[in-house]
Every structure is written in structure tokens, then in C-alpha cells.
Specification:
This protein is α/β, with parallel strands linked by helices. The protein has two domains: 2-134, Rossmann fold, CATH 3.40.50; 143-198, Winged helix-like DNA-binding domain superfamily/Winged helix DNA-binding domain (Arc Repressor Mutant, subunit A, Orthogonal Bundle), CATH 1.10.10.10. It is built from ten helices and six strands, in the order βαβαβαβαβαβααααα. It has a six-stranded parallel β-sheet, sandwiched between helices. Strand 3 (50-54), helix 3 and strand 4 form a beta-alpha-beta unit. The two termini are 37 Å apart. Keywords: DNA-binding, Phosphoprotein, Transcription, Transcription regulation.
Length: 201
Amino acid sequence: MIKICIAEDQQLLRGALISIMELEEDLHIVGEAADGAEAWTLIEKEKPDVCILDIEMPHLSGLEVAAKIRNHNFPCKIMIMTTFARAGYLQEAMDLHIDAYVLKDEPIQYVIGAVRKIMQGERVISQDLAATLFMNEKNPLNEREINVLKLVKDGYTTNEISKKLFLTKGTIRNYLSLSIQKLEVETRQQAVQKAVEKGWI
């Protein structure tokens, strides 16, 4: 019996996945979560064989949950399910040695088949993502620039960011200027938009 935890913030999709998977004799859903923090609590408690994680969830993203699983050396297999074919997300998933990266518009039988394959040690990636993987662009931003852009995305001003990161306003402006140059855009808002689209922040 394969024990599965599902973390997906869309209740309808989560419910459909659970209902169909529970019909399979070899699959058993041991927990469901609507956000990343809830998912992590479940994973610690239930020690599932497979975690199916949405990427964009409240509190912790699917990739952040995956990183925690890896950092704690939990042996469970990880499947990312997403609507996003962004190169940055895919590269981060590959760096975390994710076992499966599956698009949400795949047929349910493909998803069930992927669960069984990863339990046998295979890696599964949706076919539509193959081109994205080969055309992958490297993130030009460093860790500090990423952190600053994330705070801009969350609506913080330069003054607020400088207090939050314990850096001068001039230093924050320098990081933003470098980010704008590297991303070949004209404003901080465009820099945030492009970084989000690429899956870099």
C-alpha cells in the first residue's frame, strides 16, 4: 500500500484527486492539506511514501516544503503538481531532486501511473515540460537581489526593505538597480514581473 499526502489549495481539485486515488487498491491517502505549513505538519506526523505538492500555496510553497523534506532526510518521494511550466520552478525542482514534476492538466491516470513509477525509482516529468527543461535559462540574480525583489513584490517600500534587511536605503537601491540591469527591464515593477514569470522569485 502506497501512503500519500496531498497538498493543494484548490479544494475541488484536491477532493477530486483524493476520491479517484482512493479507488485504487494500492493507494491510500493518509492526509490532505490546503497550505504548505499544514502539509509539513502532516508529513512529519504521517511519514507518507509519496507527497503530492502544489507549487503556489499559502504559508509555504510546494518547493519550500520539498526543501524541508530533503533537509530532514525524509525518504518519501516528492511529486510537484502545477499549472506552471516556468523554467525557474522546474530548475529548482531538479536541484531538489524532485521525483516527479507533473502539470495539472494531465489525465488522472497519468498522475496515478507517475505515483507508481516514482515508487519504483523512476523519475517522471510531463512531456510538455521537456522543452522547458532543455531551454532552461539560468537565474542571473544573486540571493540578496532575489530577497529584495521578493519584498518589492510583497509591496514593501525601499525604506521598509532597508529596515527589514538591516541595510541602508542606498544599498537596497543598488540591489534594485543591478536587478533591473540583469533582467534587462526599466523599472523595479518590471523586474519583479519578469522574475515571477521566469520562476526566479
